[in-house]
Description:
alpha/beta, seven-stranded mixed beta sheet, single chain, Rossmann fold, 12 strands, 191 residues
Amino acid sequence: MVRVGVLALQGDVREHREMLESLEVEVVSVKRPEDLRDIRGIIFPGGESTAIAHLLRSSGLKDPLSELIQQGFPVFGTCAGLILLSREILDGRADQWSFGALDVAVRRNGYGRQIASFEVPVEVDGIGQVEAVFIRAPKIEQAANEVTVLASLDKDGTHPVLVRNGNLWGCSFHPELTTDSRIHDAFVQSL
């Protein structure tokens, strides 16, 4: 059985766990560096990106995760998790950091604040149409040529919302807040 971690410091931990468990994946809640042992990939959930970044430092997870990511370890970042993976945070706080691993520039709350949350169907390459839930979602403003756009809000791909670059996946929306497990399954199948 595949073992996948869910960063369990803050955010949509339970929802990602339940989605992975529905796929019969062994799930590890990652709270300390020793929790990284024997997992094949990890999900960085949505939540509050600056809070998660702070907790990554205080838990001792920042450096071990950084080393794993540099070695090509598979990571799927949703919402705040996308922000943590991104090369550049366009409107982050002065003290905000990211792993800088996924070659995208994101704008926090780029689709609006909580009151502007919305759901919309998007077409995902290789999967089909899924319902995308946007809650204070980061907007991908720039993506390097080597980043593959798997889903966009428009047909011409100028507003990417799900991207992949090698073992790194980034998603502006919350696939864990639906009953559709196909995006999680695609990540698990890539491990």
